[in-house]
Amino acid sequence: MTRLFCCGGWICKQCSNERSAQRKAEGFDEMYRNKCPLCRGKMPREGEIGSMLLKHANKGRAWAQMHIGLRYFNGVNGYDLDKERGLKLIEESADQRDPDALLQLALAYTGEMLERDESKYVHYLKEAADLGHPDAQLQLALTYERQDNEKMLLHYITLAASQGDSTAC
């Protein structure tokens, strides 16, 4: 999936690649040049993405809060290193059931960001997986494999593979 930062919508990788190929091969009608295929708004340039993310995050959009939270947590893309603020934004996003934020929160409980807590790790991972996040589905399948739970392993590995996860196939 490819996130469109102008409106927060998604398009699948195949559609994104086809759009890019069409633009290179034939060119686009002027009406659609540099415009989002979903909202028809102006597509942001590389330097404009951060300000668009911040605008969406301030409006409470979970996907943007997660991206800004990661930038603060890691101190990248012009954001000062502020792990507390970053984690707070990721948690706010996870509270809105954003699958990416739930996965990041699960990974935080592996001991890298927060104190290791296996039950919270599995809880957030399962939420993200059940919302259709393929990386979470694969990670959860591997967790169930370590726990010798073959039924759940097969369930989540099949879900991940059905979304095209080559590792799960």
Describe this structure as you would to a colleague.
The chain is mainly alpha-helical and 169 residues long. The chain has 8 helices and 2 strands. The mean pLDDT is 88. Helix 2 packs across helix 3, helix 4 packs across helix 5 and helix 6 packs across helix 7. Strands 1-2 form a two-stranded antiparallel ribbon. A hairpin with a 6-residue loop joins strand 1 and strand 2. It is flat and about 55 Å long. It starts with a strand and ends in a 7-residue tail after the last helix.
Q: What percent of residues adopt helix (DSSP H or I)?
A: 55-70%
Query: Largest sheet, order of strands side by side?
Result: 1-2
Termini Cα gap: 19 Å
Number of helices: 8
- Our Rg estimate from Cα atoms comes to 18 Å
> What global shape is seen?
flat
The major pleated sheet works out as:
2 strands, antiparallel
**Low-pLDDT regions:** none
Residues in β-strands, percent? under 5%
Q: Estimate the mean pLDDT confidence.
A: 88
| Class from helix and strand fractions | mainly alpha
* Secondary structure: number of strands: 2
Short description:
The chain has 169 residues and is mainly alpha-helical. It contains eight helices and two strands; from the N terminus they run ββαααααααα. A two-stranded antiparallel sheet has the order 1-2.
